């Protein structure tokens, strides 16, 4: 090795192995399909990103790029480099190591075929020593990526290929995604574009080893309580077991030992020792050690305690020689998805029979509050740490403690888990299967097994890892096809179990004892969990007893007329998905479409709504896309005054905003309903709404827009995910109206609730009522009961303001804390309410850096402070109500990026729903 790119890899070994980061070399990208294109290329990277950077294509996210750039996905592409300076005659063995190739490749070195690959999610490694030995001149490495769109079509058309009943495959833009092990949403999804990118999307290396050298290519670290079994709550008083297992290039000597040193983050040693029960195969070495629980501080999710982390230095030692060392940052915690049968004791507490379905952290039940995380970009190589830190800061600021990492994107890279470890965000993680049935031939299953083992082992050390699920919405599909199948020969069920029980469950249980597994995100859970069976989990499917409650729920209903009908919401133990789409803000649309397209039904905007894709590959989807637009329009018109501003851009902006208000209102109604269920027979212990963030600028279910801007939803979720809340529950058919205080603290909390009726001009209609309350740990309590039919006033001009002040303690703290929350009950449609000019006044206080807002004339509904285009930040609250008597409301602001101008303060505006009534 001569070149300056070739770094002796001293940090992990004392043996002189050489590591060449292929990202440091000069690459070119060309296309056998489009022979006139040759450009410099990046590694890691993807074809679209190289073509965009080099000016061959425009910004893929702009306008109708999603349709116009389909030709890129139909092409084959070749990445090529010369391995300058690579020493080929030293007796070192040489490996190519790829942490991710997207997806169908043929790899050539020195014009000799090395291998073909077909799985985006696997790590690939090839011993190329003999090829190099016969290579003359600079070794040329070339990787050809075949078109995933064409290749999957070919696979689908193979004679005897598996087919499925119509409608089982969620088909978005390109068909046949179930035949590839590639990000499923690369072929389009109902919130995203279909670019079908290709490229060396993860780091790649040349590793050269001396004859006795080893290189650690993947590290499994599993930390669990002694005796712990997957999916079952462990004994919290048992000591910890630290199990380490290293996947290696090179051969480990049979005399090798393993050592571990556990250091706190200030580098003080907590404990160290030699691992026991060491077993080594040619390419893996494993061992474990028992650690006294008193030595280490627990890791907790955000809001529930501290995020204590430690470094684990694991070495492979032979005699006096350290052969290799891996350091992983991890933490001590147990996280279990408890699906055990409801116990006698729980029945006696009023919990409905059936099974549990909730998470326990370090032996404690808690309420999981969060949302669903989709790929943050259609092109992973441009997802930066800064972007994820900003996004996850919004998660924590939004009072969320869990994200479901949805199943049809990509396994998250380690840096995302690292950030989640630091911030305390639990990541319910999924294998990449969704909304389809998949082939089960042995080649496909072997491929999946490799993918699953690699990823389970890679991410297991992250304390933020909360669960593995087989995929998205699969059990519902399975139940659907099961209806049509012969009970004596349930082909689809057998196939489902082959993949999700026989292959994926062992990938989890065989590698880790600390993580629970479910075959499908939404599930009725298991009928039996028996570790003496070859596959310990027997699924319940629809084997339910009336009156019993078993699993988690999802809820989508695009008939907005029933959006606030509480009896339309599912009753389950946990809500893992629910939602409705809304438009992004004007500021976000301005990034993605031309000024002339800034109106609600412009074809560019409509065609970026993929809620009802026709499965076409051109822009003829317009009619279907319009359906998705219509749903948002109808909902806005049903519940709110709708805008009719003369200025068309202002009108467009107000319409976008109104669709966001409906979305937020609907989610709030569901979140309060699910949270109240913590004290109802369903003992409901989680709400994860669909979806946290956007992959691009489009009408979607997201609460955070592509560049990080918060929609109304993220503010409302932040409000309603506070630990102690009050909310009203109205049966608008019977008129029954109640209010409950719900708390997810771990100790009882007491306080007072004040309820007062106001007219929309701000006058108090009757003396306020103050009710003392005590709400139990993870529980709810009723503080008001009435009926709107017996009200002395007309709801058109009456508004019930509810607020609470309570004292309690946050989990794992001792200091009492005061919690406040307010909530407004009003007529179902604010279109009918007697809204009037609130006379809003906005001020900025340079001293405090805060804004103040005051309603000087009437009640202000959905007060909205807005940051100008180009400014990334958020207010500490927004989308609230203000009464004329409230005085000045102080609102803090955090600016994450102002684009450097410093002028953003002047661009901040305030408005409310009243503005929709103005011409
Ligand atoms: C569920 C999710 C996603 C989808 C969303 C909105 O089906 O699991 O697949 O994007 O709803 O339709």
UniProtKB/TrEMBL annotation:
GO biological process: glycoprotein catabolic process; polysaccharide catabolic process
Catalysed reactions, semicolon-separated: Hydrolysis of terminal, non-reducing beta-D-mannose residues in beta-D-mannosides
Beta-mannosidase-like galactose-binding domain mapped to chain residues: 27-202
Residue ranges of domain Mannosidase Ig/CBM-like in the record: 736-808
InterPro entries xref list: Beta-gal/glucu_dom_sf (IPR036156), Beta-mannosidase-like_N2 (IPR054593), Beta-mannosidase_GH2 (IPR050887), Beta-mannosidase_Ig (IPR041625), Galactose-bd-like_sf (IPR008979), GH (IPR017853), Ig-like_fold (IPR013783), Ig-like_GH2 (IPR006102)
Highest taxon of source: Eukaryota
Gene from which this protein is expressed: mndA
Protein name (database record): Beta-mannosidase A
Pfam families: Glyco_hydro_2, Glyco_hydro_2_N2, Ig_mannosidase, Mannosidase_ig
Domain Glycoside hydrolase family 2 immunoglobulin-like beta-sandwich: 245-333
Subunit comment: Homodimer.
């Amino acid at each position: 090795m001569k070149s300056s790119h070739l770094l002796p890899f001293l940090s992990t070994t004392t043996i002189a192995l050489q590591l060449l980061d292929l990202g440091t070399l000069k690459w070119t990208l060309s296309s056998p399909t489009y022979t006139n294109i040759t450009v410099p290329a990046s590694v890691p990277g993807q074809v679209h990103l190289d073509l965009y950077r080099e000016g061959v294509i425009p910004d893929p996210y702009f306008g109708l790029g999603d349709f116009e750039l389909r030709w890129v996905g139909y092409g084959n592409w070749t990445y090529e480099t010369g391995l300058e300076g690579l020493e080929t005659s030293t007796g070192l063995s040489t490996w190519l190591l790829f942490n991710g190739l997207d997806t169908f490749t043929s790899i050539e070195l020195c014009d000799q075929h090395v291998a073909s690959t077909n799985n985006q999610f696997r790590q690939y490694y090839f011993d190329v020593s003999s090829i190099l030995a016969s290579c003359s001149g600079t070794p040329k490495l070339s990787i050809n990526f075949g078109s995933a769109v064409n290749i999957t079509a070919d696979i689908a058309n193979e004679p005897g290929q598996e087919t499925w009943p119509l409608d089982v495959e969620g088909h978005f833009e390109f068909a046949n995604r179930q035949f590839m092990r590639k990000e499923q949403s690369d072929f389009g999804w109902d919130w995203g574009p279909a670019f079908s990118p290709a490229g060396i999307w993860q780091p790649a290396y040349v590793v050269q080893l001396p004859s006795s050298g080893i290189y650690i290519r993947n590290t499994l670290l599993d930390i669990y309580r002694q005796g712990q079994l997957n999916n079952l709550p462990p004994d919290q008083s048992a000591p910890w077991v630290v199990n380490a297992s290293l996947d290696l290039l090179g051969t480990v000597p049979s005399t090798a030992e393993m050592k571990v040193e556990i250091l706190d983050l200030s580098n003080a040693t907590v404990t160290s020792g030699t691992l026991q029960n060491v077993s080594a195969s040619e390419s893996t070495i494993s061992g474990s050690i028992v650690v006294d629980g008193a030595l280490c501080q627990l890791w907790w999710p955000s809001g529930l305690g501290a995020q204590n982390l430690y470094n684990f230095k694991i070495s492979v030692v032979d005699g006096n020689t350290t052969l290799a060392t891996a350091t992983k940052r991890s933490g001590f915690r147990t996280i279990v998805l408890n699906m055990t049968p409801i116990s006698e004791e729980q029945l006696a507490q009023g919990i409905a029979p059936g099974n549990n379905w909730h998470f326990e952290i370090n032996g404690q039940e808690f309420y999981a509050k969060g949302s669903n995380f989709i790929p943050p970009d259609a092109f992973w190589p441009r997802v930066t740490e800064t972007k994820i830190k900003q996004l996850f800061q919004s998660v924590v600021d939004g009072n969320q403690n869990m994200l479901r990492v949805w199943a049809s994107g990509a396994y998250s890279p380690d840096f995302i888990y690292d950030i989640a470890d630091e911030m305390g965000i639990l990541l319910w993680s999924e294998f990449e299967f969704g909304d389809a049935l998949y082939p089960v031939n042995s080649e496909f299953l072997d491929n999946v097994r490799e993918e699953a083992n690699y990823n389970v082992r890679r991410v297991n050390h992250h304390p933020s890892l909360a669960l593995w699920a087989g995929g998205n919405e699969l059990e519902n599909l399975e139940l659907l096809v099961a209806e049509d199948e012969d009970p004596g020969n349930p082909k689809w069920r057998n196939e489902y179990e082959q993949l999700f029980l026989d292959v994926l469950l062992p990938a989890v249980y065989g590698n880790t004892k600390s993580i629970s597994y479910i075959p499908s995100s939404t599930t009725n859970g298991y009928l039996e969990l028996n570790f003496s069976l070859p596959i310990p989990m027997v699924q319940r499917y629809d084997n339910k007893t009336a009156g019993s409650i078993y699993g988690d729920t999802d809820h989508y209903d695009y008939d907005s007329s029933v959006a606030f009908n509480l009896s339309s919401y599912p009753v389950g133990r946990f809500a893992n998905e629910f939602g409705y789409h809304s438009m992004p803000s004007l500021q976000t649309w301005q990034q993605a479409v031309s000024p002339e397209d800034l109106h609600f039904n412009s074809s560019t905007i409509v065609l970026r709504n993929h809620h009802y894709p026709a499965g076409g590959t051109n822009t003829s989807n317009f009619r279907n896309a319009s359906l998705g637009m219509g749903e948002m329009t109808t909902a806005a018109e049903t519940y709110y005054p709708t805008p009719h501003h003369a200025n068309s851009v202002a009108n467009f902006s107000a319409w976008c905003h109104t669709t966001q208000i409906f979305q937020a209102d609907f989610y709030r109604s569901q979140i309060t309903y699910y949270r109240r269920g913590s004290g109802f027979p369903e003992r409901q212990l989680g709400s994860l709404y669909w979806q946290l963030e956007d992959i691009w600028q489009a009408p979607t279910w997201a609460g955070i827009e592509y560049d990080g801007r918060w929609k109304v939803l993220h503010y409302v979720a932040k409000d309603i995910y506070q630990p102690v809340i009050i909310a009203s529950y109205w049966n608008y058919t019977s008129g029954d109206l109640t209010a409950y205080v719900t708390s997810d603290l771990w100790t009882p909390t007491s306080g007072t609730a004040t309820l007062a009726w106001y007219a929309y001009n701000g006058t108090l209609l009757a003396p306020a009522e103050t009710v003392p309350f005590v709400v139990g740990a993870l529980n709810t309590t009723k503080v008001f009961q009435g009926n709107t039919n017996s009200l002395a006033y007309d709801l058109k001009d009456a508004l019930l303001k509810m607020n609470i002040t309570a004292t309690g303690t946050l989990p794992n703290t001792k200091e009492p804390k005061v919690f406040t929350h307010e909530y407004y009950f009003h007529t179902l449609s604010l279109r009918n309410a007697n809204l009037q000019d609130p006379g809003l006044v906005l001020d900025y206080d340079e001293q405090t850096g805060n804004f103040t807002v005051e309603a000087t004339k009437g009640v202000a509904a959905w007060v909205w402070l807005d940051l100008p285009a180009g400014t990334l930040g958020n207010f500490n609250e927004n989308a609230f109500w203000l009464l004329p008597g409230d005085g000045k409301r102080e609102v803090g602001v955090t600016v994450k990026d102002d684009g450097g101008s410093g002028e953003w303060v002047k661009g901040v505006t305030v408005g409310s729903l009243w503005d929709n009534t103005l011409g």
